[in-house]
């Protein structure tokens, strides 16, 4: 199975534009039968996991704690690392392509790791960093993702 990493704003809540974008993204990724790796916590991570699992896909959370207490309820698989934010390179290294949705400094560090590792990064309302392809819609993000994965 193909794997994609999704990173982004942990502060997004249901009803927020970024949360809803990530939820719709998750639905589409689940329909494509992609394994979706993320940080497993709240916000964008929760929303994308919810969409993926509702579409019958697999959502993997690379968690900061040893006991999984920070996991969102929509994960299919929890990986308890006990590594705190040091788990960020694992999140991005696990996907063939990295999709960034909003975010703050944690997301910025993940973008940096992804670029160091040579992963393509597609961003929606995220950090404007050289190497990140910015998109303005879900459709555009999915079109570029499909092209990277050889499906479009």
Descriptive report:
The protein has helices spanning 17-31, 44-54, 88-93, 105-116, 138-149, and strands spanning 3-8, 35-38, 58-63, 77-80, 97-101, 121-124, 132-135. The chain is of the alpha/beta class and 152 residues long. It has a single domain, classed as Rossmann fold. Strands 4-3-2-1-5-6-7 form a seven-stranded parallel beta sheet, with helices on both faces. Helix 4 (105-116) links the parallel strand 5 (97-101) and strand 6 (121-124). Helix 1 (17-31) packs parallel to helix 2.
Jot down its keywords:
152 residues; alpha/beta; Rossmann fold; 7-stranded parallel β-sheet; 37% helix
Please summarize what this structure is.
The protein has 152 residues and is of the alpha/beta class. 37% of the residues lie in helices and 22% in strands. The chain has one domain: Rossmann fold.
* Structural domains: how many: 1
CATH topology: Rossmann fold
Low-confidence stretches: none
Helix and strand content put the structural class at: alpha/beta
Helix content: 25-40%
Task: Write down the Rg.
Answer: 13 Å
**Kindly state the mean pLDDT as a whole number?**
97
The main sheet comes to:
7 strands, parallel
Strand content: 15-25%
**CATH architecture heading:** 3-Layer(aba) Sandwich
Strand order of the largest sheet: 4-3-2-1-5-6-7
The separation of the N and C termini measures 17 Å
- Give the beta-strand count: 7
CATH class designation:
Alpha Beta
Give me the strand/helix succession. EHEHEEHEHEEH
Shape descriptor: globular
State the helix count: 5
């Amino acid at each position: 199975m193909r794997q994609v990493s999704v990173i982004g704003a942990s502060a997004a809540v249901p009803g927020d534009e970024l949360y809803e974008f990530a939820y719709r993204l998750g639905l589409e990724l689940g329909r494509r039968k992609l394994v979706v790796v993320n940080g497993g916590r709240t916000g964008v991570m929760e929303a994308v996991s919810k969409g993926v699992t509702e579409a019958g896909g697999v959502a993997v959370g690379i968690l900061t704690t040893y006991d999984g207490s920070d996991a969102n309820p929509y994960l299919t698989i929890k990986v308890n690392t006990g590594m705190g934010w040091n788990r960020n390179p694992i999140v991005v290294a696990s996907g063939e392509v990295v999709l960034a949705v909003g975010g703050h400094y944690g997301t910025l560090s993940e973008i940096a790791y992804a670029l160091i590792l040579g992963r393509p990064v597609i961003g929606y309302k995220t950090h404007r960093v050289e190497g990140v392809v910015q998109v303005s819609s879900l459709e555009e993000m999915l079109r570029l993702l499909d092209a990277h994965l050889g499906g479009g």
